[in-house]
Amino acid sequence: MSYAKVLCVGLVGLVGHVVEVEADLAVGLPAVVLTGLPDAALNEARDRVRAAVVNSGQRWPNRRITVNLRPATLPKQGSAFDVAIACALLAGAGELPLAPMEGTVVLGELGLDGTVRPVRGVLPMVAAVSKAGLSRVIVPLENAREATMVPRIAVEAVDSLHRLIAFVRGEGELLRPPPKPVEPIAVGPDLTDVAGQEFGRYAIEVAAAGGHHLSMVGPPGAGKTMLAERLPSILPELDDTSALEVTALQSIAGVLPPDGRLVRRPPFQAPHHSASLAALVGGGSGIARPGAISLAHRGVLFLDETPEFANATLQALRQPLENGKVVLARARGTTEYPARVQVVLAANPCPCAAPAGEQFCQCTAVVRRRYLNKLSGPLLDRIDIQIKLQPIRAAQLMTPTAPAEPSAIVAERVATARAAAASRWAADGWRVNAEVPGPHLRRPPWRLPSRTTSALRAGLDRGSLSARGFDRIIRLAWTIADLDGRNSPNGSDVDEAAQLRMGEAHDRHATT
After folding, report:
1. Quick one: pLDDT at residue 509?
2. Measured between alpha carbons, how far is 318 from 299 in angstroms, rounded to an integer?
3. Angle between helices 45-55 and 82-92 (to 10 degrees)
4. Cα(60)–Cα(93) distance, rounded to whole angstroms?
5. Up-side HSE of residue 354: CA atoms within 13 Å toward CB?
6. Of 53, 104, 232, 279, which sees the most CB atoms within 10 A?
7. What's the rounded Cα separation, in Å, for the pair 11 and 288?
């Protein structure tokens, strides 16, 4: 037999495709030809596979070997095809029977000594196997626990090409995935650590309840970073679908923890202000990799010192904030990654960043305005909540009147509000108020009475409020109503939403 076929999986973005690895051995000068749009790392598989086969005690066939990755029009990348290529060419040379590999997908990178090494993206690859109707995969031992996250798939592990060859010949067994570890109790920053800033605490509670974006401007030490870091602590745990999406993205990026558990806590990404455009939204040669905004999918993307980010980097956020996804076009194809995140922006009011605020600021009004103008109007127009934080006073820091509310209590209110919103929008597939399109809220039965939105209509007519801003205030009003247990926003909710949008503290939540 001079032809053999083994199944593998190729990834394009977050989507996996089952790939047939075909090997044909023909008479001619010894050579290995790889076809099917391989990238540079995959082209180098020829040398890795040859060394691994020889060092595993097998004879290398001195024939003209053609390896085709089908479908040939699908771009292929990475080293996950190594083991499948080795099995296909050995089977084509008559060294391996194919019957034990029937309907089995094989993944893994080969070392020169024949060891099978872990690869990125095993979770979405195995998910593609399940979607294709197959039920068995062989993966590297280090990836086995990750592969078991996909239900109804038989997962077997291998640590060397020698072990896999012995199994196919009926001379040995494969390894079982290691047992899943006990779920640890998640411990992280808690809202009880935040001194004062009742208005800031209320703002992130509203943001968490409705999935709204948030901007905070205030002097150093006002608590901007502390509030942002504690936002994930009041968000609900991810459901199964969201957890699989988040875990798959971390698997592709190579940052999945080695314990092989589903990521249940909303992720938190805080890139440094020197981060490049590709680091923030994704990029790279060939098939683009996910950036920080996709790694924060279903969680929080925190941009501290936002005016210090490059302008082009900040402007690249506008489309993902609107659509909840990143579309990266490259010469080898277009890649799409989900980016349904809550963005939190934090900025000092001026370059000198005087701790006590404007009272001791040495910057002129022109300098302060130029500094904050780095946050462009179109970007800020997509941020639902825009607040200004005041400096912390000694009385708030040293002698609090009562312990601050912990995250657990706030999280209960957030969960109740989110449940109300999810129930209301379930028929349309939206989870939180921030996802509801503006036109939907402006049509019956969800359109609010004219007397409730009269002030907003006047602002829209004057030009002091954009149409996008109008819709975002209405979404905020629905979230405030959900937190207060009302079925529909009233005039007070709309006024409070407008104040959150404009950065003014409502009496009920003003800082002392």
Report:
1. 47
2. 17
3. 60
4. 9
5. 10
6. 53
7. 11
pLDDT for the residue 465:
86
> Which of 283, 284, 305, 308 is CA-nearest to residue 293?
283
Q: Let me know the angle formed at the C-alpha of 120 by 276 and 301, rounded to the nearest 5 degrees.
A: 40
Q: What is the pLDDT, as a whole number, of residue 258?
A: 72
Model pLDDT, residue 328: 86
Helix (H, G, I), strand (E, B) or coil at 132: coil
Q: Which two tokens stand for residue 483?
A: 């937190």
CA distance 483 to 38: 53
Q: Which tokens hold the place of 23?
A: 């090997």
Burial class of residue 441, CB neighbours in 10 A (0-12, 13-18, 19+): middle
The pLDDT of residue 209: 96
Q: So what's the pLDDT on residue 341?
A: 95
Q: Which DSSP string do the residues of 14-78 spell out, in sequence order?
A: TEEEEEEEEEEEESSS-EEEEESSB-HHHHTHHHHHHHHHHHTT-PPP-SEEEEEEESTTS-B-S
Lateral strand order in the sheet of 3-12 = 31-35, 64-70, 15-26, 3-12, 104-106, 136-140, 154-158
Sign, CA dihedral 221-272-432-233, equals negative
Mean pLDDT, each 10-residue run in order, the chain (512 residues): 91 92 92 91 92 95 94 91 96 90 95 95 95 95 93 95 95 89 69 86 95 93 91 93 92 82 91 93 78 95 94 92 87 84 93 72 85 87 91 69 83 96 93 93 92 90 88 95 94 93 57 36
What is the reported pLDDT for 335? 85
Where are the extended beta strands (E) located within 356-505?
385-388
pTM of this structure: 0.88
In angstroms, rounded to a whole number, what is the distance separating the alpha carbons of residues 120 and 18? 16
- The residue to which tokens 């089995």 are assigned: 104
- Of 247, 265, 245, 244, nearest to 255 by C-alpha is 247
What is the residue type of 479?
Answer: T
- For residue 438 the two structure tokens come to 């503006």
H helices of 98-253, where?
122-131, 144-147, 161-168, 198-210, 224-230, 240-253
Q: What is the pLDDT of residue 287?
A: 65
